[in-house]
UniProtKB/TrEMBL annotation:
<keyword id="KW-0547">Nucleotide-binding</keyword>
<feature type="domain" description="Adenylate kinase active site lid">
    <location>
        <begin position="160"/>
        <end position="195"/>
    </location>
</feature>
<keyword id="KW-0808">Transferase</keyword>
<comment type="subunit">
    <text>Monomer.</text>
</comment>
<dbReference type="Pfam" id="PF05191">
    <property type="entry name" value="ADK_lid"/>
</dbReference>
<keyword id="KW-0418">Kinase</keyword>
<dbReference type="InterPro" id="IPR000850">
    <property type="entry name" value="Adenylat/UMP-CMP_kin"/>
</dbReference>
<dbReference type="InterPro" id="IPR007862">
    <property type="entry name" value="Adenylate_kinase_lid-dom"/>
</dbReference>
<dbReference type="GO" id="GO:0004017">
    <property type="term" value="F:AMP kinase activity"/>
</dbReference>
<protein>
    <recommendedName>
        <fullName>adenylate kinase</fullName>
        <ecNumber>2.7.4.3</ecNumber>
    </recommendedName>
</protein>
<dbReference type="InterPro" id="IPR033690">
    <property type="entry name" value="Adenylat_kinase_CS"/>
</dbReference>
<dbReference type="GO" id="GO:0005524">
    <property type="term" value="F:ATP binding"/>
</dbReference>
<comment type="similarity">
    <text>Belongs to the adenylate kinase family.</text>
</comment>
<comment type="function">
    <text>Catalyzes the reversible transfer of the terminal phosphate group between ATP and AMP. Plays an important role in cellular energy homeostasis and in adenine nucleotide metabolism.</text>
</comment>
<dbReference type="Pfam" id="PF00406">
    <property type="entry name" value="ADK"/>
</dbReference>
<dbReference type="InterPro" id="IPR027417">
    <property type="entry name" value="P-loop_NTPase"/>
</dbReference>
<dbReference type="InterPro" id="IPR006259">
    <property type="entry name" value="Adenyl_kin_sub"/>
</dbReference>
Length: 246
């Protein structure tokens, strides 16, 4: 809610909705979650559901880096330098990303915990993340592993179409728009991301298996990993997630 709006000017229903949301959230247990899974495994479908159900904040490291750069925070200024180098093939350092997560966790919306998506991608990143959380007396509660066969992913991904400005996504087979090629809400054209082709998918999957499977092993040793059957329909995956987190 914008701070410039006086409370008395807000519609009662908005105030009540927010109060009810906060009351509901206050009784929820804290949860710090990592979502792991190859592209197309359904993390993007489940994370908003988990976020609302458990009152968590969603920390997507790419978005956070961009936001920190835009806000010109001290870390953002460092990140901007790093990202301009990154375009020359250097990567943003793990410490910087962990610092930005650390900063983001202090926001009120992250009071009950967070969902991390797209990080950690390597064991070194996982160790640095754990170190930072330890300093705050916290730890990762669950790593949700969206396990799925590579062949199923290909069908899923190559049928994906996106409405760029809202991020709404459709699938030609599983969730088609009412009118082919057009967003249901705005009527604007849908695009297919250049990543959503079979060739790109193959190289992304190879990278995923190589880098991220050690991360799953790392958390499995700590007993934090929950295997999900990500090939199931979204509603069934949601039910699995709720069972794991209850």
């Amino acid at each position: 809610m914008a701070s410039s709006v006086a409370l008395e000017d807000l519609p009662s229903v908005d105030i009540m909705t927010e109060l009810l949301r906060r009351m509901k959230c206050s009784s929820k247990p804290d949860k710090r979650l990592i979502l792991v899974g190859p592209p197309g495994s359904g993390k993007g479908t489940q994370s908003p559901i988990i976020k609302d159900e458990y009152c968590l904040c969603h920390l997507a490291t790419g978005d956070m880096l961009r936001a920190a750069v835009a806000a010109k925070t001290p870390l953002g200024i460092k990140a901007k330098e790093a990202m301009s180098k990154a375009s020359k093939g250097e990567l943003v350092s793990d410490d910087l990303v962990v610092g930005i997560i650390d900063e983001a966790m202090k926001k009120p919306s992250c009071q009950k915990g967070f969902i991390l998506d797209g990080f950690p991608r390597t064991v070194v990143q996982a160790e640095k993340l754990d170190e930072m959380l330890q300093k705050q007396g916290a730890k990762i509660d669950k790593v949700l592993n969206f396990a799925i066969d590579d062949a199923i992913l290909e069908e899923r991904i190559t049928g994906r179409w996106i409405h760029p400005s809202s991020g709404r996504s459709y699938h030609m087979k599983f969730a088609p728009p009412k009118v082919p090629g057009v967003d249901d809400v705005t009527g604007e054209p849908l695009i297919q991301r250049k990543d959503d082709t079979a060739e790109v998918l193959k190289s992304r999957l190879e990278a995923f298996h190589r880098q991220t499977e050690p991360v799953i092993d790392y958390y499995a040793k700590k007993g934090a990993v929950a295997q999900l059957h990500a090939e199931k329909p979204p509603k069934e995956v949601t039910a699995e997630v709720q069972k794991v987190l209850s």
